Amino acid sequence: MDATHLTGVRTGAVSGVAAKYLAPEDARVAAVFGAGVQARNQAWAAATVRGLDEIRVYDPVKAAADRFVDEMGERLGVRVVRAGSGEEACRGADMVFTATTSKTPVVKREWLGDRVHVSAIGAFYPDCRELETGIVVDAKVVIDEWEAIRLESGDIMIPIEEGAMTEDHVYAELGELVTGEKPGRTPGDGLTVFKSVGIAIQDSAVAKLVVEKASKLV
Hints:
Elements: H1 3-22, E1 29-33, H2 37-49, E2 54-58, H3 62-76, E3 79-82, H4 86-90, E4 95-98, E5 117-120, H5 133-138, E6 140-143, H6 146-152, H7 154-162, E7 170-173, H8 174-178, E8 192-195, H9 200-217
Parallel strand pairs: 1-2, 1-4, 2-3, 4-5, 5-8, 6-7, 6-8
Helix pairs in contact: 1-2, 1-9
């Protein structure tokens, strides 16, 4: 497994953990922005943690989206369809996963319902973001780790710089949900957002697991 695929697995796994704690239990439709390695692992994560009926993929490159539909539908055993636009992908979706290289928001607040989980993993520069400010401001926000977020996440830091929110708006780091220090989704929650830029311990954990599994095949 090369570094690109290892990173993709790590990112997908982290998004899956976040969705386990934050996505609606009855989520049945997921939207995925992007059609590359990262997006494939986001789809895998979504289908692993929730019993999905449909995954919608949107990518401006039609051929890439079509390949995603063919490959992931067979791999996941879930209906996968190509959406004609970002809005079409989002309308009525219970979970939204963004894995793009866009420097500007690809998801608008008006496209999302009031009970949706969003996982944003594509933007990892302070001047780039995938989500509109309104999405982050309206949501219960969970991040992977504050030190990395402050350096790399425009999705979080731009709304703060705009004065739309403060750091206190961020509810928790993901580890706090996993350890039980804070609850994940609660009955009163509506929109939730998980923002990840990736941290070293995630790579180490996945690499360790890969080595352990490979050693059993020898």
